[in-house]
Amino acid sequence: MTRPLRIAVAGMGAMGRLYAGWLQQGCVPGAVFTAGYDPAPGAAARLRDEFPQAEFFSRSEELFSSGLADAVIVASPHRFHPELGEEALRAGLHTLVEKPAGIDAASVHRMNQTAAEHPQLTCGVMFNQRMNPLYRRIRQLVQSGEMGRLRRVTWMITTWWRPDSYYSQSPWRATWAHEGGGVLTSQAPHQLDLLQWICGMPERLNCHMRFGSHRAITVEDDVTAYLEFPGGATGVFISCTHDVLGTDRLELLLDGGKILVEDSCRARIRRLYQPEQELSAALDAQQTARLVEGGVMPDICTETMLEHKPDWTEQHCGMLADFVASAQTGAPFTAPGAEGLKEVQLANAMYLSAWQERAVPVPADEEAFRVMLAEQARREAEKNRRKD
Predict the structure, then answer these.
(1) Which of 159, 154, 157 shows the shortest CA–CA distance to 246?
(2) For 53-67, how does the pLDDT look when each residue is reduced to its tens digit (9 = 90+)?
(3) C-alpha 358: how far from its chain's center?
(4) CA distances in angstroms from 7 to 63, 122, 180, 293, listed in the order given
(5) 240 to each of 102, 213, 262, how far by Cα in Å?
(6) Closest of 156, 193, 215, 237 to residue 337, by C-alpha
(7) Residue by residue, what is the 3-state secondary structure of the chain?
(8) Crossing angle of helices 337-356/105-116, nearest 10°?
(9) Which of 245, 243, 250, 181 is nearest to 217 (CA)?
(10) CB-based contact 147:233 (threshold 8 Å)
(11) What is the percent of the chain with per-residue pLDDT over 90, rounded to a whole number?
C-alpha cells in the first residue's frame, strides 16, 4: 500500500492555510500536511496552534531541506511562484504552484526548464476550474472537431468584483512591483487558462485596459481584448473587478452549432443538423425569412442542456487529488507547468498590447514585457513616494 504523500505549503497566507486545512481535514485521500513556510515574524508560533501536527519554518530553504515533505504547494505572493517552484524542484519535491504560474513568462520558462531536468517529479499549476465537468465536456466537443471548426469565442467574465477593502488588506495586492498586475494576474487567470485549454492559443491580439478606473490602484481593473486564432477564428475577452452585478458568459460559435455557458454551471449546446455553410446554400428566401424573423427554426438543430453547480472546495481538492496521483504513480497531471506558461504568455501579451497601444503576437516579446513591467513598477514607486 502506497504511504501518504507528505505535502508542505510554502506561503501560509489565506490560500496556504486553506490548502493546509483541507489536507488536515482529510479532504485529499492519500495526502497529509506536514510542514509550512511563512517568513512573517512570529508566524511559526501562531501556525503551530492552528496546525499542531506540522512543523513551520521562516526560511524556504529550511523547509525544502527538512526531509518532512515529498511535495510542496507554492501559495506565496505571485512574483515568488517560479522562484520557490524552482527551489522546491531542485530539492527533489513534487511541486504544485498556485495560479498564476508567475508574473512574467521568462521566469515560468525557467521553472519549467528546471522541471524538465527532474522528469521524475510532477510540476503543475492549480487551475482548479479544469475540474468543472462542464468545461471538461466543452473542451472535448471543441477539441474533437465533432461540431466543426471554431469560428468565434466571446467570454465576458466580470464576476470578479472586489471592494476597496480587498485591495487594502495587504500591501502587495494590486501592485506592479509585487502582484504584477490586477484582474488579469489575480482573478482572471482561471478564464485565460480555460480559454486556451478549450480553444487553443490565439496567434495575435489587441487589448485595451483601464488602470485604476474605479479603485485607488495603479494596476488594471478593466480589460477588453480582441483575439485572432490560427485558422481564422476570432474572439473577445472582457473582464473587470468593478461590476458588483457581474456576468459570466462564454459563447462558442462553431461550424456545426453553438455552445453557451452561463455562470460556469449551465451549458446550452445547439447542434445544427448540417454545417452552417451547407445550410446557407440550401435555404430559400422564404425559409431564410422564417429564420431571421422568428428565431431559430426547430428543424435545423438539436438542443441539450448540461448543468453542474461548481463547488470551489471540491474543485481544489479534486486538483490536489490529481496531483497526489501523479506524484505517486507518474500519471499525467491535468495542469502541467507548460499549461501554466501558456496562461502567463496570454496575459503578458495583453499587457504589452495595452501599454504599446497596438496589436501584438502571442506569445509576445518576453524582454519587451519585462522592461515595460519594470517601468510600471518604477512609476508606481515614484507615485507612492510623492504621496508620502
Answers:
(1) 159
(2) 999 999 999 999 999
(3) 24
(4) 11, 13, 27, 60
(5) 20, 10, 17
(6) 193
(7) CCCCEEEEEECCCHHHHHHHHHHHCCCCCCEEEEEEECCCCCHHHHHHHHCCCCEEECCHHHHHCCCCCCEEEECCCHHHHHHHHHHHHHCCCEEEEECCCCCCHHHHHHHHHHHHCCCCCCEEEECHHHHCHHHHHHHHHHHHCCCCCEEEEEEEECCCCCCHHHHHCCCCCCCCCCCCCCHHHHCCHHHHHHHHHHHCCCCEEEEEEEECCCCCCCCEEEEEEEEECCCCCEEEEEEECCCCCCCEEEEEEECCEEEEEECCCEEEEEEECCCHHHHHHHCCHHHHHHHHHHCCCCCCEEEEEEECCCCHHHHHHHHHHHHHHHHHHCCCCCCEHHHHHHHHHHHHHHHHHHHHCCCEECCCCHHHHHHHHHHHHHHHHHHHHHHC
(8) 160
(9) 181
(10) no
(11) 87
Q: Rounded CA gap, 57 and 38, in Å?
A: 6
**Is the pLDDT reported for residue 1 higher than 70?**
no
- For residue 291, what are the contacts with CB-CB under 8 A and spacing of at least 6? 283, 297, 300
Quote the cell numbers at residue 338.
507548460
Mean pLDDT of the region 347-354: 98
Residue with cell 495526502: 31
Instruction: Tell me how far apart the alpha carbons of residues 270 and 280 are, in angstroms, rounded to a whole number.
Output: 17
Q: How many CA atoms lie within 13 A of 213 on its CB side?
A: 14
Strand partners, 190: none
At 266 the pLDDT is 97
Report the alpha-carbon distance of residue 71 to residue 325 in Å, rounded.
12
Phi-psi region of 335 (alpha: psi -120 to 50; beta: other; left: phi over 0): beta
| pLDDT band per the 50, 70, 90 thresholds, residue 296 | low
Backbone angles phi, psi at 360, to 5 degrees: -135, 155
CA separation for the pair 128, 308 (Å, rounded):
15
Rounded CA separation 388/385 (Å): 5
Each residue's pLDDT tens digit, 298-338:
588 999 999 998 898 999 999 999 999 999 999 999 999 99
